[in-house]
Amino acid sequence: MKITETIRKRNRAGVLNGSVSLALLFFSLQVSADEQAVDFARDVAPILESHCLRCHSDNIQKGELSLSTVKDLLSKGHLSAGNPDTSYLIDMISPDGDAPPEMPKEGTPLSDQERETIRRWIQQGAVWPEAIVIKEKSKAGRDWWSLQPLKGVEPQLDPTLPAAWQSNPIDRFIAAELKVQGLTPSGPANPRDLIYRATYDLTGLPPTPEETAAFVADHSEQAYERLIDRLLASPRYGEQWGRHWLDVIRFGESRGFERNQIIDNLWPLRDYVIRSINEDKPFDLLIREHLTGDVIGKDQPDVEIAAAFLVAGPYDDVGNQDAVQAAQIRANTIDEIVSATSEAFLGLTVGCARCHDHKFDPILQQDYYSLYATFAGIHHGEREVASAGQRSSRQAILQPLTERRDQLTKEKTDLQTGIAARADAKAEEHAAKWTRPPASRQETIETFAPVEAKAVKLLVLAQEMNPIHITGYRIDEFEVWTAGENSRNVALAKNGGVAVGNNRVAQDAAGAYGPQLTIDGQYSARWVAAGNELVIQLREPQTIDRIIFSSDRPNLAPTTGDANFVSEYRILASSDGEKWTEVANSNDRKPVNDAHRKLRLLRLETTEEERQTQARLDRELAEVNKQIAAIPALPVWWVGNLKPAPGPFHLFLGGSPQRLGAPVTASSLSFLSEVAPKYQIENVRPEAGRRMALAEWIVSPQNPLTPRVLANRVWHYHFGTGIVETPSDFGYMGSRPTHPALLDWLALQLQQNGWKLKTLHRQIMLSQTYRQSSDTRAEAAQVDADSRYLWRFPPRRLAAEEIRDSLLQICGKLNLQMGGPGYRMYQYLSDNVSTYIPLDAFGPETYRRAVYHQNARASRIDLMTDFDSPDCAFATPRRAETTTPLQALTMLNHQFTLDLANALSERLQKEAPGPTDATVERAFALCFGRAPTQAESASCGEFIQAHGLPAFCRVMLNTSEMIYVK
Question: pTM, whole model, 2 decimals?
């Protein structure tokens, strides 16, 4: 209910109205010596913050009431200074007999002592200093750990540590915390496990048997360091770590929401990410390019595409004619960009401050709408992305052709203008010959002298809505009547009539857009034609004298008036289907509208010479247009569009664009202003300037969040869990760091080494911490079951992409082609809304790495989805790892794994054609990177003899050892 209305109905005596001055309200009362004076800031404000502001703040205003300042209490008459008994505020917080108080509706009611404090405050004059604005306090303040400056304190040397653990600061950090937890590190991993771990980690693929054998045999101290350098230099590295980053930035190649149409031109963003990571592009530059690539990369397509990050998320393109709903959809669109940006780069859920100040982190609603103002000019969509050279070269080829086209167009226009002048002069003369009514969408009847026919043809010369071009018309019934007394409709399906013509077919869809015409007199038989003729074939020759057709017949369905119907036509009959005779036409009918009238007059007044000249001009124009069309178009990519967004911008109270709050300008986040200097930009500045300023603030050396978040992401992908377990939430609801000093040290190393990831990889992977064995120890597991403190290397299951890519590589089928448009492992059907049907069988065109699959939202890919490949409708900073029956069933029975089992069998027959023992040994080397034990060799040999080599390969591809790294 609206409390204001309740106040008016009660009409309390003594309630102040808005005309009473503040001086009268805040009068001084003599406080008795035995009654303590109530201080608003000390005694009352904490009560309102704890019990009331969750619903009654400036941002929310439930019941149209805010308790942030005294303004609402005064203007709406909720209290009477000096008289609590006539103050509505007291009624709302007090119980009514046995009934609980009306307020607060959520949370714990006020205690008797708190109610008494409010009562005494009102009794003493309800003094609320104007300077005091109360806010609901967030759980975390500006002193939250992740908002503090980076501290680069290295741990002291511990002489009790093994020498190998003393040189790398990472090891000293880890060892120090292990000692606190009462744990000790594990010994080094064996060489086979280490090369598998490192190779999968950096490339997402297993090492080849030859690479494994060479590494195991190399006992030099530099062998492992050379391995890391080789892997970091591999193009496979960018594909693996590019996939990680694409997860973080919610890269998806369909629009999402109800229509979820495919996006065929976003793949350059994927290639940009892979290329940038392979090149070891400084990550602060990559962040700048993501936010402002269209500005700093102007005329550089390989850089400009980076800004597609802003529009790579789901996008509601359904549209809404209602202005209120359209505004809400637009607000939702900007919200998605704000959330994606803040979570990816800053590790904060700024999106939670859309409707009110953040409940848990010190993020104000004003901070959210400052970012909203920053991105307000971004609109989803595609546009040309090309270099200045590309544009210039294309224009040089195009210009002479467009000049020729303009010349021909002018000649044709001049010719038609002259014909039109004659047509206007003789319009009445011609119109006098049009004696019949125009063609009717409800029913058009043509009668003629009896003629024998085996087939009847409707030749469409024009349609109502576009008299010049036939784009598609609708016919719901076509009747052919025999001559004589017992006339009957021989076009009916039951009488043997068959309709032949072209339906309009939706692109990339399985079925026709309109139903096949059946001459049955039913509404369901509507025909949406694409060609200019419709032929009715009769069962046998008939003598006919009447044709009736319609596109919107009232007795079939209510008249809608929106059918594009046949307006100009000829009707022909044939006794053999080869020779045709015209039996009727629309020449003497009145035109259906003025456009048809003008076109008919032009045709009547055009001479044969003019017709030939016009035909020549049309041919030459067609040829020029063909040459223009043959010129390669400039690339068009889904990179978004900029539109002016000068503001003014406001807070949206409760997140609603219909409830405007205080004005805001584009700025950085206020809660970091003491650490990273705040900027503020007036909204009249170009939108790109706002994003430039934001990008510079995000990667500022003073901003501690960005390097902390990025360093933690790198650690997360190396060890399976980050130092902060929630990679995109460094706030109160996220996890606390297990090694905060180590995280700061890594973040500083990242900055000091020019934001280069490869340097950070080497520092981490060369540590003894990373090179530990993954063997478990019962006593350590009791203390730290998940190895969060890294007393051993945490083993992991391969990600969905790694499983699929590994199967292809092991079986000799992996195609390492990089970049370009993706392939599909689904059938895509689209007819306003889109459907993605998983393929039952995959051809060789799908044997590329999984990162190049056209990753559509809400699409299912059997093996990939079963192994927790995420739906890219959302960012996925941390992959799930489930165990389900579908995983085993898919791996065992899907045609993909069956095909690969056969491929592995063929590979083994080529590479190890000798005794069964040799075949088994090669299979183990390919699949596991090791030799089989004697027992394994014997057992596998027996299996091959009993069931054949393909069955053995199928078993090998279904082993746990294939999909776990330790």
Answer: 0.77
